[in-house]
């Protein structure tokens, strides 16, 4: 975990570009100072009225930094080396620079110029590092990730290893889309997939519980990791005719989700991708049939998300179905405490009833720890909820 006072991860601290007009001048400079401390650690301020170039800014390649001393914070070093965070910051800075002349928050032209100067310095430092372009492209190519989960198998013809290949390479590549977080496989989906494969009986993922033809819907599927792992797991437990509907909303995320399903042909036959807007859920096919199981991992980023997810689940879950929801716990940044909104949403006495008159209720909550090398720097763990009508 990052120590107190360390720069925050860009993906959890940078304000959405579409809302940047709402920031104050102090907010803008606090955001830029955070990026400067993270990527140009020897520079903590920009002198008013002075033009800076990358030659004025000590370049940190993101791989080695001694700014914290010989016993520096390993988590901070890892954050600087995180390719996703770096690219997230790069596209945000690009968008900010394009919009800076239109922002009304600056009290003087001098302040606007300083903000532009500081943003340009940090952005320029990314392209003047010791890493050449060929190596940079190789790093981006590494976003194509292979996951292997161990499990038990009742079918002797199927191995005990479940393998999934995903394309995370699109994550953070489009500077015009600051909210395409579903292009990245986040820690919660990895932790949940592993736990599901380790303990399928605990989740009721057997023929005795679900029958041979269960219907499963994933909300906010992102890259599709959970759905793909589940589609491979079920046949190993004698469920051969399951239907899995993996849903998300952002167009780029949906394109990537469909590509990942196609890239895993052994798992793909039982999976269908569908667009779903949580704020205005549609019961059109393939979401016109209620699900035996609902799944959602790391989908709560605002109070509204918890309420929307609850209301979607109320519509889509069968009366005797189960909803597994995993919320990421973040102790700092703009998503700090947001995981607490889940209990508030599902404990609200005014929450809607399903057509049969019952409301969704949290039956069990469990805290899950992080796995080594999994998850972003601002994640401290996960809360897993078992939810059903009661």
What's the helix and strand layout?
Layout: H1 10-13, H2 25-39, H3 74-81, H4 83-99, H5 109-126, H6 133-141, E1 144-150, E2 161-167, H7 187-198, H8 207-210, E3 215-219, H9 225-233, E4 243-248, H10 251-262, E5 271-275, E6 291-297, H11 303-316, E7 317-330, H12 341-347, E8 360-368, E9 379-389
Parallel strand pairs: 3-4, 3-6, 4-5, 6-7
Antiparallel strand pairs: 1-2, 7-9, 8-9
Helix pairs in contact: 2-5, 4-5, 7-9, 11-12
Question: Any key phrases for this structure?
Answer:
single chain, 390 residues, alpha/beta, two-stranded antiparallel ribbon, 12 helices, 9 strands
Question: Describe it for me?
Answer:
The chain is of the alpha/beta class. 33% of the residues lie in helices and 18% in strands. The protein has 12 helices and 9 strands. The strands form 2 sheets. Strands 5-4-3-6-7-9-8 form a 7-stranded mixed sheet, with helices on both faces. Strands 1-2 form a two-stranded antiparallel sheet. Helix 2 (25-39) runs parallel beside helix 5 and helix 11 crosses helix 12 (341-347). The longest helix has 18 residues, at 109-126. The model is unreliable at 43-72 and 170-182 (pLDDT under 50). Pfam families: Methyltransf_16 (PF10294). Keywords: Methyltransferase, Transferase.
């Amino acid at each position: 975990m990052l120590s107190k006072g360390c720069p925050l991860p860009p993906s959890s601290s940078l304000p959405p570009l579409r809302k940047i007009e709402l920031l104050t001048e102090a907010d803008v400079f606090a955001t830029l100072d955070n990026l400067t401390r993270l990527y140009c650690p020897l520079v903590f301020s920009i002198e008013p009225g002075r033009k800076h170039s990358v030659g004025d800014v000590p370049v940190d390649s993101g791989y080695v930094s001694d700014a914290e001393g010989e016993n520096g914070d390993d988590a901070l070093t890892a954050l600087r080396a995180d390719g996703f965070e770096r690219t997230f910051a790069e596209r945000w800075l690009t968008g900010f620079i394009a919009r800076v002349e239109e922002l009304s928050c600056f009290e003087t032209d001098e302040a606007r110029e300083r903000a532009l100067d500081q943003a340009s310095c940090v952005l320029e430092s990314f392209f003047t590092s010791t890493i050449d372009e060929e190596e940079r492209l190789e790093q981006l190519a590494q976003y194509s990730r292979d996951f292997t989960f161990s499990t038990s198998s009742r079918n002797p013809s199927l191995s005990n290893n479940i393998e999934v290949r995903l394309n995370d390479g699109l994550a953070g590549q489009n500077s015009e889309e600051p909210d395409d977080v579903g292009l990245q496989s986040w820690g919660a989906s990895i932790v949940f997939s592993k736990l599901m494969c380790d303990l399928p009986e605990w989740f009721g993922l057997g023929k005795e519980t679900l029958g041979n033809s269960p219907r499963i819907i994933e909300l906010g599927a992102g890259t599709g990791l959970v759905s793909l792992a589940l589609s491979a797991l079920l046949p190993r437990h004698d469920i051969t005719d399951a239907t899995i509907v993996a849903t998300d909303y952002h167009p780029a995320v949906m394109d990537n989700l469909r590509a990942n399903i196609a890239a895993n042909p052994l798992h793909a036959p039982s999976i269908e991708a569908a667009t779903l807007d949580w704020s205005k859920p549609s019961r059109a096919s393939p979401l016109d049939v209620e699900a035996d199981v609902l799944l959602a991992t790391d989908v709560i980023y605002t109070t509204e998300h918890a309420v929307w997810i609850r209301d979607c689940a109320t519509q889509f879950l069968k009366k005797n179905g189960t909803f597994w929801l995993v919320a990421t716990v973040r102790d700092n940044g703009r998503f700090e405490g947001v995981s607490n909104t889940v209990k508030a949403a599902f404990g609200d006495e005014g929450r809607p009833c399903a057509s049969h008159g019952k409301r969704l209720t949290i039956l069990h909550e469990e805290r899950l720890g992080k796995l080594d090398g999994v998850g972003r720097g601002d994640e401290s763990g996960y809360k897993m909820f078992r939810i059903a009508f009661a």
